[in-house]
Design brief:
This protein has one helix and no strands. It is an all-alpha fold and about 80 residues long. It starts with a helix and ends with a helix.
Amino acid sequence: MERIALAKAREARRVLREQTKLEEQARIEAEKREQDAAAAAAATAESDARARAADSRIARVIDDEATRKAERDQRYANRKARQA
């Protein structure tokens, strides 16, 4: 009887250890998924920020070019008006 009780207790401890290991492994995997998701979100945010910065630079260049052309056209119109 005593041997059976010891065997049952030993089995119960083994099951508890195994369950604890599985819970720990699940927790570690969940943390890893969270870290991966955070890293992916950070990479996406950085990529979006770079794209916005590039779009902003392009828009400034286009605006500067349009302003320069408008000023050139105005000088040309003024020159033509003086010649007339």
